[in-house]
């Protein structure tokens, strides 16, 4: 399962890259850098076992938990 | 300017109404009933005050800084460094909220399509929305306009068909425990109404600016009335049981049975929900992508669409081992973030701009 996920997400990242690059190659360096950084971050994240890692949703839930208790 | 398309004021109203209503159509009545019991019809009235406020702020900011979204005008008002931090926080909130919306949608659809993997349901929605965002603001405006009747009519039809079974006696006793429960019940809808601030990303592309306020005002009033009516109908039908029902409007539709012919209207509710969530997710998606491009001073927002889509998909899973985490986020954290980022921070920016006497003079001269 783990390997299927890694291969599938890598293929997805490659497809996205292939789809965008022809048009992107004519744009300035800054645009290219933004695209590649975002895609790279997404690709690295997709390698991890995300559901069981603490993430942004865990963070905001912890941050606003006292408010939730007040509303109960 | 990054966005060259133009939309009409009517299209803004039709874009922003489903943004507020789509989540409310799913579990709104039972979420409000949990706090407000039989006074839940009052909660949307309190919550809509937040909607009027955030629309008013968005329009005032747009008057001072025409052609700028919140990311750009923050830079004009506060200067480069604070605006960079603020912009990043805005983009994070948009991405996070979008992930929660997509996850809620997928959990609802998985209730029907039990064998389908969640990632496929989410991927399909994000793909469709990415195509809409790629088409730009005009495509989004027109699809919202085309889908608008399909969003409203099934709901009206359902209310009409279920009408004979309603028992208005469930409304009593009115305000049994005072106003506080209904105000507490307004907390979650307040978050939805704050989303009205997303018109800040649409106003710069508006062709007829003088009707902007009217259109946004009618969208808020429309959303408020729809919520009040839907809350009353579900309360009249289910009474005390309402706060335990997971998808009250679904169950109301399932109840419809006229001459054994009009049956299983719940599929119509599901279709309406898919339309609404398409508009909502594309709106948040568009705001994220356009905001990122403005934040980084890019020349085009098009290349960012697909990577941001992939990020939304990952955020749907990140730190979410079960559906309860999403429910908690949607009930407490997300409304708080919306009120903070779509009401208070823009209001603070507007106040700062007024005190410092800042406005964008060059653009104003151009637009006459």
Rounded mean pLDDT of chain B is 85
How many distinct beta strands of chain B? 0
The largest β sheet of chain B comes out as: none
What percent of residues of chain B are in strands? under 5%
**CA radius of gyration of chain B:** 20 Å
DSSP E strands of chain A, number: 0
User: Looking at the structure, what is the overall shape of chain A?
Assistant: elongated
CATH architecture of chain B: Up-down Bundle
Unreliable stretches of chain A (pLDDT < 50, length at least 5) are none
CATH class label of chain B: Mainly Alpha
CATH topology of chain B, anyone?
Answer: Amino acid/polyamine transporter I
Share in helix of chain B: over 70%
**Quaternary organisation:** heterodimer
Query: How many domain modules of chain A?
Result: 1
Q: Name the shape of chain B in a single word.
A: globular
Biggest interface, chains and residue tallies: A-B, 38 and 39 residues
């Amino acid at each position: 399962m783990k390997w299927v996920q890694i291969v599938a997400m890598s293929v997805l990242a490659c497809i996205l890259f292939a789809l965008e690059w022809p048009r992107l190659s004519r744009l300035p360096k800054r645009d290219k850098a933004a695209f590649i950084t975002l895609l790279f971050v997404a690709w690295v994240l997709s390698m991890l076992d995300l559901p069981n890692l603490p993430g942004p949703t865990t963070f905001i839930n912890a941050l606003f938990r006292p408010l939730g208790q007040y509303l109960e | 300017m990054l966005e060259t398309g133009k939309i009409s004021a009517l299209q803004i109203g039709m874009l922003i109404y489903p943004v507020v209503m789509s989540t409310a159509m799913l579990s709104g009545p039972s979420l409000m009933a949990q706090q407000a019991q039989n006074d839940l019809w009052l909660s949307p009235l309190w919550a809509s005050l937040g909607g009027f406020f955030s629309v008013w702020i968005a329009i005032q900011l747009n008057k001072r800084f025409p052609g700028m979204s919140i990311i750009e005008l923050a830079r004009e008002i506060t200067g480069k460094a604070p605006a960079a931090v603020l912009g990043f926080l805005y983009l994070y909130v948009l991405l996070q909220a979008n992930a929660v919306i997509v996850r809620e949608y997928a959990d609802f659809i998985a209730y029907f399509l039990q064998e389908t993997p969640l990632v496929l349901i989410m991927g399909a929605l994000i793909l469709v929305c990415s195509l809409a965002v790629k088409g730009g603001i005009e495509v989004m405006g027109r699809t919202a306009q085309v889908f608008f009747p399909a969003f409203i009519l099934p709901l009206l039809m359902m209310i009409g068909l279920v009408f004979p079974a309603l028992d208005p006696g469930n409304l009593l006793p009115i305000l049994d425990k005072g106003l506080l429960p209904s105000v507490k019940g307004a907390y979650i809808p307040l978050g939805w109404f704050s989303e009205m601030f997303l018109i800040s990303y649409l106003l710069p592309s508006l062709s007829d600016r003088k009707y902007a306020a009217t259109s946004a005002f009618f969208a808020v009033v429309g959303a408020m009335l729809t919520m009040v009516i839907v809350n009353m109908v579900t309360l009249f039908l289910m009474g005390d049981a309402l706060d335990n029902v997971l998808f009250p409007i679904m169950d109301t539709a399932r109840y419809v049975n006229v001459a054994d012919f009009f049956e299983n209207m719940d599929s119509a509710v599901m279709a309406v929900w898919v339309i609404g969530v398409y508009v909502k997710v594309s709106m948040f998606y568009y705001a994220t992508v356009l905001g990122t491009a403005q934040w980084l001073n890019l020349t085009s927002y098009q290349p960012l669409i697909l990577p941001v889509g992939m990020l939304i998909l990952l955020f749907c899973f990140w730190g979410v081992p079960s559906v309860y985490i999403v429910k908690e986020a949607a009930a407490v954290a997300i409304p708080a973030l919306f009120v903070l980022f779509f009401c208070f921070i823009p209001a603070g920016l507007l106040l700062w701009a007024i005190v410092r006497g800042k406005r964008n003079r060059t653009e104003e001269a151009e637009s006459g």
